[in-house]
Every structure is written in structure tokens, then in C-alpha cells.
Amino acid sequence: MMTSLFLLIVFFLSCQIICVLSYSSQPMNCTDTARLCTSFLAFKPQENLTLPVIQSMFDVLPQDVMVEDNDHGYIFVKKNCSCLSSTAAKVYGTNTTYTMESSDGYVYENVINAYDGLAFLPNTTRKAKAGAVISLRLFCGCSNGLWNYLMSYVMGEDDTVESLSSRFGVSMDSIEAVNGIGSPDNVTAGALYYVPLNSVPGVPYPVETDIPPSPTPVPEPSSESLSENTQKHKAHVPFGWIIGSLGIGIGLVVFCITVCVCLKSSCCFSKAEGECAKDSDEKSSHKFHILRKPSFCCASRRFISDQSGDWKNTNGETSSHHVAIPKALETDILHMEKPMVFTYEEVDFATDGFSDSSLIGHGSYGSVYYGHLGDQEVAVKRMTATKTKEFMAELKVLCKVHHSNLVELIGYAASDEELFLIYEYAQKGSFKSHLHDPQNKEGHTPLSWNIRVQIALDAARGLEYIHEHTKTHYVHRDIKTSNILLDGSFRAKISDFGLAKLVGKRGDGETTATKVVGTFGYLAPEYLSDGLATAKSDVYAFGVVLFEIISGREAIIRTEGSATKNSERRSLASVMLAALRSSPDAMSMSSLKDHIDPNMMDLYPHDCVFKMAMLAKQCVDEDPILRPDMKQVVISLSQILLSSIEWEATLAGNSQVFSGLVQGR
Question: Taking a C-beta distance cutoff of 8 angstroms, is the pair 617, 577 a contact?
Fold first, then answer.
């Protein structure tokens, strides 16, 4: 009798467990495989789990782990969530791997227990093996637009819809609507639910640092013990100190010899410098360096000064150009890596005397002129000497960074009155002139979708380079369509580094407080409020550029009222975000279609446009932590471009359609 009762209880409990597992293992269904969003997973770690272990379990970075700022003991893991089509039914999920800690039990049981119900994988009877790496998926969900994020949460014994509502600041109706709950009492402990959120949960995970213990105070030695110790030190000579001292001494001698040789052979620091400066005071104010080598000190060795004060090349030829470094530039210019320096006469001749016919635009801090230096087309930015700070900022950056998607600095000229920067010439002008009402303004042919994506990818690569791959990292601080230039093949180059700022070795890890500069419509919220310039500020501006690519509209737009005086200025980002809230996927994007550039004449792949719109949405997230970095943006745009090229190839048979696609190339 007791045995039968025991078996009945075991059977009943097994059924309950199976029911709970089967309920909680049902992921959220989806329809659009192009959907990608940011989601969160609520996880209650065991006491022995450290941050590195949690990172490994969820395959995330330290900044992706937040901790709940109360006594619930939960952490919140940020993960990208996508619609997975490899299963029989399309469901939301995110991938990760788990390393088995022991050989006890079965793989399925160990994984489910380790992730406390957040993981799903096929129920196999495979035995666990210590060290084995298991690929699995985690529950996640994407919001339909009513909320910013969904958080996967396994219901605890003491949890209720009401307690979750109070804890995360959302209404009970919202939780019930997302999960399809008919009654707040109809929830099951151990089952998975989705909590809608409008802001990032928790606070950054506390990183423990090893603080060395304070040194124990040492009693002051008496005169007798001091004398005794002195005798001991005399008896035991520390040979390491002697060898180290000798090494330092030899190093100093070698350094001094090197400096002396350099000073002796370099005209940068020679007696001739004084003669040049003196000579420059007696002549016209338009006296400039002439330099044809990558660095000042190296190039200056090619010239010597004769007694008359004229500069001669080492081959005996006299040069009529004289050196006169403007005082504002003297300190910094010697650190440039690749300045090529021209005279005022050369620059003036190249631009036809800075005639109106040579004027091609206005930059942030000066006018830009078209010109020819020899057989090379150039763009010359003309600035007043009061803009020395911006001039030096741009010169410093462009002398040190070289990339196919950054405009190349050819050289400069400077005097006490004016400053000139000479760049490679971008034959097709600014991206802005092609994008916004091109036929009416400039007579350009509208750009095709594929060309737009290629330009976006080029610009993203240029930004990624200055954010992550340069020796010192930079924030551009003025990313916009007018600062993206196009060469003869419509390949993009980022320009105008006058506002660029160093951000420290770890990129977004460090911030730089500064006055707010840049262009409204592109400025990130945290930059506007706190003046904190980070790489994520550039990401926000780039997100606005992506919205411009899709819509063909400018970053600040006017919404027309009943009369012109009632028109309202709104940011493009806010308009596009509102449209995306009503366009949950690529199949149902009626609201977004109203904001797609009509110049593309409906010739674009809808899924690719939607993917770019969702990427732009992530870039302009109010929380900089949730914005992708430029490396992630480059990866996403590369995939969008590949899909767009495949789409275009399918239409090549339709000559009429295909001829429209290649316009703007």
C-alpha cells in the first residue's frame, strides 16, 4: 500500500515537472526572419558564479551584465535577439555555449538547471562529460513597438504579476498583454514570461579590484640599530642595484649622444632657424614652409642655410622659399607625421586667386575651394588665423590616420593672417547634395538603394577605424551627410575633423567632458545634457545618417501646419522611430513606407530597408550602452549590402527595372 502510494506521488510530481518544463520551453513565435532587437534575460546566479563565468555562459561582454539594485539577487544580461528560422516554427532566440562542469547526470538536465529555465535545447539522453561545450539557445523576445525591450523572466515561487509590475515599473495590463495571460492569478512558478521594459534594467555589474592592504607602520629605528644595519649593508653589497645603475647610466649617455647628433644635423633646431625667422619678419607676411617629405625633422635635413640666408638643397640648388612658422603652430607642428607644406603663392595660383568660380562649399570653419596643384585635383579649406585650434585639431588627426574611407590630407599652408588645409578632391561632392532633393538642388541623378548602402558601409568603416584601430582613438563629433564626401566612383570618405577629440585608449570606456559642438539633429542626448563625447555619440549621429539614407529627408525637418507660420521643426530620428513603432516587421511596414525616399521609385528590397531602419533605431537609442559599436554596425551593413546585391541580381533580367537601379552610379 505504501509502495503504491509512493509511486503515485512520484508519478504526480513527474507530471507536474514535465508540465512546467513543457510550458516554460515554449519560446515566443515570430514571422520576420530579418527581425533583430536588443533584449534582456533575468538570471539569478548561484553564489559561486563570478562575472567571467557569467560572461562565458551568456557569451557577452562585461558591460552587457547589469545587477538589480535591491535584495532580489538578480542580474540582467543584454543580448541581441533574432527570429530563428532553423526550427519547425519561427521563434525568437539567441545563441550561446555552455561548458559542462562535471560528468554527473545528463546534458539536458545540467543545462536547464544551470540557466534556471532560460535555455532551451532538444531533450537528449546524452550523458554529461566534464569540459564538453554545448551549443544552445536562450529565450528572448522582441517588442512589437509598444515597448523598447522585452526581458525573459522565469517566474519564482513568490513572484506574481503584481510584484513584477511594481518591481520593474510596468503596468499589470502590459505584462498580461505580452504573455497572453487572461487573469493575473493564472501564472505558474518555474514558467517563462516576458516583462516589457522602456528603460535598461539594473545598474552596471560591480567589478571587484584587488586593493593591496595598507602597509604596516614600521617603528622608527634607533641610532644603535641604524648603525648596525649600516654595517650589514656594507658587508652585503646588492649587485642588482649596481648593475641597474650602470644600465641607466649607459642609457643616458647613449640618449645624450643621439640628441646631440640630431640637434647638430637638423635645421629644425639649428642656428638657421633664427636666421629664417629674422628673414621672415623683413619680408611679406605670406612666407611659408616648403616641405616634400613625411616629417619635419627628416625633410629639414635636405636643406642647409648659406650666409646670405637663402635655403639651399643639399644638391646645391637654391630655393626661394623661406621658413616662417606661425607662433601658434611652433609647439605642435614638429609632432606631425605627414605634413606637406606649400607657399601661399602655390595655393593662390592653384585656386585661381580664390575666385568665386573655384568656391565649392563652406565647411564648419572655413570656405572650400577647388584647385590644381600640378596634375592633382585638390580641395583647399581657407580659414582665418583665429581658427588655429580647429586647424591644429584637423591637422593632428589627418597626419596620423590614413584609411581609404577617410579624406586624405595632402598638405597645408599658414601665415599670420590665414590658414589653409589642402585635401584630396572628392569629384562627386558631398553625400548630402545627392541625397536631399538632388534633382532640384544640384541636378544629380537620385542614388540607387545599393549605392546608398555601399556609401553607408564605407562611412561606417571609416568611423570604425578612428574609434578602434588607430594608435590613439578619436571621436569625430560632427558626423553628418555633408561631412561624407564621394569620389568619382561614389565611394565615401569622412571629412572635416576640426572637432575631433581624443577619447583614450579604450574608446567608449573613457569619456571627455567638453562644450557641446556639432550639428543639431545629430547630437546624442547624453552629449547635449552632459557634454560627454564618446564613440557612442558618433554612433548616434551615424544612426541619423542611416535614417536620412532611407527617407531622403534632412536631420531636422519641418512638419507643415495649417499655415507656414504653424510649421514645427522635428528631428528626423523622432519621426522615423514613431513610424517604426507601427511597423513591427518587414511584412507589415505600411507606416515606414510613407517615409521611404520616393526618389528610389519603389526599387528597393523591403527586408533590407527594414533591417537598416532597425539598425538605425539601435544606433539612436537614448541609452548609449545599448547602442552598437561601429564594428557591429559594419558587420550589419555588410550583410545588408550582400542581400541587396543578391536582390538586384534577381532583377537583372528586367531591363527597364535594371536600368533604373544603376542610376546614380
Answer: yes
pLDDT of residue 508 exceeding 50, the answer is no
Q: Rounded distance, CA 429 to CA 488, Å? A: 9
The per-residue pLDDT for 577 is 92
Q: What is the pLDDT of residue 484?
A: 95
* 152/24 Cα distance (integer angstroms): 11
3-state helix, strand, coil split of the chain in percent (to 5) is 40, 20, 40
3-state SS of 123-139 is CCCCECCCCCEEEEEEC
- Choosing from 478, 508, 538, 621, which is the catalytic residue? 478
HSE-CB for 395 with a 13 A CA cutoff: 27
Enumerate the H helices of 465-571 as residue ranges: 525-530, 535-551
**pLDDT at residue 262 above 50?**
yes
Instruction: Show Cβ contacts of residue 571 under 8 Å, excluding neighbours closer than 6 positions.
Output: 521, 544, 555, 556, 557
Query: Is 530 a residue of the active site?
Result: no
Phi, psi of 90 (to 5 degrees): -75, 125
Beta pairing class for 409-414 and 532-533: unpaired
Residue 606 to residues 142, 438, 550, 633: CA-CA distances in angstroms? Answer: 19, 23, 11, 19
Q: Parallel, antiparallel, or unpaired: how do β-strands 512-513 and 203-204 relate? A: unpaired
Radius of gyration (C-alpha) of the chain in whole angstroms: 33
- Please say whether the beta carbons of 303 and 318 come within 8 A: no
Q: Is the pLDDT of residue 357 over 50?
A: yes
Beta strand segments in 125-248, E: 133-138, 149-154, 192-197, 203-204
Query: In a 10 Å sphere around its CB, with 0-12 CB exposed, 13-18 middle and 19+ buried, how is residue 388 labelled?
Result: middle
Q: What is the pLDDT of residues 31-40, one digit of tens each?
A: 877 777 889 9
The cell numbers describing 356, all together, are 568665386
Contact by Cβ (8 Å): 651, 661? yes
| Mean model confidence pLDDT for the chain | 74
Classify the phi-psi angles of 566: left when phi > 0, otherwise alpha if psi is within -120 to 50, otherwise beta.
alpha
298: pLDDT strictly greater than 70? no
Q: Average pLDDT for residues 392-402, to the nearest whole number?
A: 81
Nearest-angstrom CA–CA distance, 179 and 192 = 9
